[in-house]
Amino acid sequence: MPLLVQNKKIERLRSTAGLFAKHPHFQENAKAFRAKALENVDTKCLLYVQQREFAATTPADKSVTVLGSDDATTCHLVVLRHTGSGATCLAHCDGSSTWTEVPSIVKAVTTLSGKASGGRLELHLIGGFDDDRKTSHQLSLNLLAAFQKQEEDIHLVTCCITELNDVVTDGIHRPAVYGIGVNVKTGDVFPATFSRRGPAEELRSAQTFIGRQMVEIYDSSKELVKIGPCEWSPNRELIFWLTQDDITILQYLSTSPMAEPPHFVQHIKMTIQFLLEHPSADSLFPGGLPQTFRRTECGAWEREAEQ
């Protein structure tokens, strides 16, 4: 079935402007979403989702209350939730493989929902801005088109994307909302910021930097974060980037150099340093097994001992 807005089928979209002109309530909804207070999420209840990752769980989860992600400039943050089962998925999409990512997101939620009676699939899209390269616009359209292709009825509830998530400061366009959280118990979606992005932040960033496809990082049945395994080859040429100034790194390693958060360059350098210190991923995944992390009583993610 097609994507639905207020229980009516969305016709084929040629522009985000056309969608918002036909459904003007999205403009007011986006304005209200942007006006929500920015919440600094307690890491003791958080599962952080990095770029090209998704995670799904249910309200029964004792380890995760909030799924969250941030640092989205041209990227889009996708929340899909089944209102009957409460099964919820958060994905951080950058346009690398939208047409294969969206079916995975839908499958994650429908699988966890089982044969839940009642309820519907609700979609929340946040991210992007009115960037010069129109990268955000293209990703917005691709995501909407990909969800339209799914067999399930999916109701678009929040659409704070691209021009509706754009703010101009000192003549520079940037996103109004860079990050969100979703409370898996209540379904509440809200602007958010995070003091920590673990577990295994550097490893996960390295996997994205080398160009992996989107991966699911959480097994809700066991309440385990699973990272890898993956492979990469030694690349001493990466040292070059550690000698460059911030402007050069932003220009060549960002899709939106003028809109990145302040810590972007430091994050890139941290990731490159990790790859240089681990020229091969083999030692990070003994026996070719993933790294797994479980929530401790004090609320931290702790790596499980190797079997």
From TrEMBL:
Any Pfam family the entry gives: N_Asn_amidohyd
Q: Where does the source fall among the domains of life?
A: Eukaryota
Q: Name one GO molecular function term.
A: protein-N-terminal asparagine amidohydrolase activity
Question: What is one cellular component GO term in this UniProt entry?
Answer: nucleus
Q: Which GO terms describe its biological process?
A: ubiquitin-dependent protein catabolic process
Database matches in PANTHER family: N-TERMINAL ASPARAGINE AMIDOHYDROLASE (PTHR12498), PROTEIN N-TERMINAL ASPARAGINE AMIDOHYDROLASE (PTHR12498:SF0)
Q: What is this protein called?
A: N-terminal asparagine amidase
Organism, scientific name: Paramormyrops kingsleyae
